[in-house]
Design goal:
2 domains, binds NADPH dihydro-nicotinamide-adenine-dinucleotide phosphate, 10 strands, 49% helix, binds (2S)-3,4-dihydro-2H-pyrrole-2-carboxylic acid, 8-stranded mixed β-sheet, Rossmann fold, alpha/beta, two-stranded antiparallel sheet, ProC C-terminal domain-like fold
Length: 360
């Protein structure tokens, strides 16, 4: 398209517009995109705000800390959530959420409790100020969490969920909202295990929530109210981007944004290896690789003449980097001949399929 514009003697602006037209095919006509409950009419500013927040650094979503409000990563003022929050399991993802909520000041250490199994976990949580730490969820911990909190996050491995749900079920009342982050575990499984009328939300967060740059999706169970959805959205928005999806999309979300950080880390590591191979010291190579990935991701959310719903198509951005007969196109050709694009697609599909398998 760019070549065509040049052949027609168009200037850079007209050429950019021509590229925009070609790239807009990626958005289906009339498509409604929902970002954290916002409809497409508002999503451009939400996406731009998300990018602005992430540009402000790792604490970009952090709140003012006064007056009981904080800022979401979309820049909107969030009210601190008054309800007490319990975590059953607080490992990699549970602790990332706890730290993220605290950093965003959407909750406070006195309003959070955890059920954990080992002393290391207990120490780590005490160091961030959590005072109410209970033992194994299958040995009384769930009862104590249910007594302490009205919102209960289930953050154990999917394989541990049957016994955790069995232990928790007798203590769940209509006042509780149960939020599961377990890959693959369906709303029906959660609702059946927790008993008739249980208010359940299924969430797929990711670990960058720790630094207010998470990407989460959620779906509501049969008995969860709109207010429950708004509450979960408030919490997840405080630690990054959040979007409501249909449950049938949750395995795909898991394969993409749940597992995705690991795929990107592998890419950063490989880029840094390339830098070392080309002669850079390891630390310089790693810093350049990670900053390049972060900056490239932010560019997708930049608002230019080609953007649609606040996003620029990555193909447009890629084309702007690659000069004719330059360095980038040589590297891109190498990636394409190595099948990297297909490898990423297959990685997401395989991870999504594994999420489906975990449903049992
Ligand atoms: N890691 C990630 O990036 C993401 C994970 N998830 C989901 O989050 C969940 C947790 O994953 P992750 O944080 O990685 O796993 P971790 O193993 O790091 O954390 C799970 C924690 O749960 C604890 N636990 C297990 N059984 C009990 C019990 N009966 N009572 C109290 N605590 C218990 C474990 O303790 P112990 O160590 O003693 O076994 C562990 O600390 C999974 O369901 C996963 O699918 C979702 C999105 C992203
Ligand atoms: O690897 C896993 O199973 C979890 C779910 C998504 C990310 N980590």
């Amino acid at each position: 398209m760019r070549l065509l514009a040049a052949e027609q003697g168009l200037g850079p602006a007209a050429a950019a517009a021509a590229v925009a037209v070609s790239r807009q095919a990626w958005l289906l006509p009339g498509r409604q995109l929902q970002w954290a409950g916002l409809t497409s009419s508002a999503s451009r500013s939400a996406a731009a705000a998300a990018a602005a927040a992430s540009q402000s650094g790792s604490t970009g979503g952090g709140g003012s800390g006064s007056g009981g409000s904080s800022s979401s990563s979309s820049g909107a003022k969030l009210k601190a959530v008054p309800e007490r929050i319990g975590f059953i399991g607080a490992g990699q993802m549970g602790e990332a959420l706890i730290r993220g909520f605290l950093k965003a000041r959407v909750s406070s250490p006195g309003k959070i409790c955890c059920s954990v199994r080992d002393f290391d976990r207990q120490d780590a949580l005490e160091r961030i100020g959590i005072g109410s730490i209970f033992g194994d969820a299958t040995e009384g911990g769930s009862e104590e969490v249910a007594r302490f909190a009205r919102i209960i996050f289930l953050c154990t491995k999917p394989q541990a969920m049957p016994e955790v749900l069995e232990a928790l079920a007798p203590h769940i009342t209509p006042d509780h909202l149960v939020v599961s982050i377990a890959a693959g575990i369906t709303l029906v499984t959660l609702e059946e295990a927790l008993g008739e009328g249980a208010r359940v939300v299924r969430v797929m967060p990711n670990t960058p929530s720790l630094v207010q740059s998470g990407a989460s999706a959620f779906c509501l169970g049969r008995h969860a109210t709109q207010q429950d959805g708004e509450l979960v959205e408030t919490l997840l928005s405080s630690v990054g981007f959040c979007i409501q999806v249909q449950e049938k999309q949750m395995d795909a979300v898991t394969g993409l944004s749940g597992s995705g950080p690991a795929f990107v880390y592998l890419m950063i590591e490989a880029l840094a290896d390339g830098g070392v191979a080309a002669g850079l010291p390891r630390d310089t190579a790693l810093a350049l690789a990670a900053k390049t990935v972060a900056g490239a991701a932010q560019m997708v959310f930049s608002d230019d003449e080609t953007s649609v719903l606040g996003m620029v198509h990555p193909g447009v951005l890629k084309d702007r980097v690659a000069s004719p007969a330059g360095t980038t196109i040589e590297g891109l050709a190498e990636l394409e001949s190595s099948g990297v694009r297909g490898a990423f697609i297959r990685a997401v599909k395989r991870a999504a399929a594994r999420s489906k398998e975990l449903a049992g």
